[in-house]
TrEMBL record:
Gene3D superfamilies in alphabetical order: 1.10.30.50
Name the record gives this protein: HNH domain-containing protein
Highest rank taxon of the organism: Bacteria
Basic residues composition-biased segments: 85-95
Domain HNH per the UniProt entry, residue ranges: 46-82
Ranges for region Disordered: 68-95
Pfam families: HNH
Higher taxonomy: Bacteria, Bacillati, Actinomycetota, Actinomycetes, Kitasatosporales
Length: 95
């Protein structure tokens, strides 16, 4: 039985590098709660999670920094494995 590649040192290093950038969520544009750490971060909807631009299920690279994005847990979960880009802002009114 193979081990989970997300527990490996390269993945943890990439996650730490992405977290250190302190970027907003690439999906919704709002700030991420980087102050939440430990086991709580994985459960809090506004906590940091590493998202992949090209989902792993569609051939995206696991440890490629060019494929890594900072996202809220809830935004990453709601996106699932869809290969979508960040949400476009909605127009202020209907024309």
């Amino acid at each position: 039985m193979a081990s989970n590649p997300r527990n490996g040192r390269p993945y943890r290093r990439l996650t730490a590098q992405q977290r250190s950038l302190g970027l907003p969520c690439w999906l919704c544009g709002h700030n991420i709660r980087y102050d939440i750490t430990g086991p709580e971060a994985g459960k809090h909807p506004l906590g940091f999670t590493l998202d992949h631009l090209v989902p792993l299920s569609m051939g995206g690279a696991l440890c490629d920094p060019a494929n890594a994005r900072s996202a809220h847990r809830r935004c990453n979960s709601s996106r699932g494995n869809r290969a979508t880009t960040a949400k476009r802002p909605r127009p202020s009114r209907r024309w």
